[in-house]
Design a protein that fits this description.
alpha+beta, 3-stranded antiparallel sheet, 2 helices, 3 strands, about 50% helix
Length: about 130
């Protein structure tokens, strides 16, 4: 663990010295200023792009693991009324035991027209 911290500090110091070196060289040699500026802008753009991609992928994959949202209190697809879907039945599915969450087959019914809809939901059990 201590070695990892030394490597991290060394890498951070190296990056800082590299940035200061580029700034110093661009002050000494004005002809290279536009080249260094372009490289710095390109590097910052790539870093921002990668950060955005990581955040977007994290949001998509975390939503996929959590499963679909509950339909309780949502709009009915058949009649269009708002906040009418209510949970009628929740059945525990024991098929997949390799994951950290429980699978349920949930049936929802519209209180206005009686339309039924079912979906599988994931519930992460809370420690007691």
């Amino acid at each position: 663990m201590h070695k990892d911290k030394l490597y991290l500090v060394g890498t951070a110091c190296g990056v800082i010295f590299l940035i200061f070196g580029v700034v110093f060289l661009s002050l000494l040699f004005p002809g290279y200023r536009s080249f260094f500026l372009g490289v710095m802008i390109l590097a910052i753009g790539v870093i921002l792009f990668l950060a955005i991609v990581v955040v977007v992928l994290f949001v998509f994959f975390s939503r996929g693991v959590q499963g679909p949202k509950s339909l309780s209190g949502t709009r009915c697809r058949k009649c269009g009324h708002r906040r009418v879907m209510q949970e009628v039945n929740r059945e525990f599915l024991q098929g997949n035991v390799k994951t950290d969450f429980d699978h349920y087959k949930v049936i929802y019914r519209c209180t206005q027209c009686g339309h039924q809809q079912e979906q599988e939901e994931h519930v992460i059990p809370q420690p007691k």
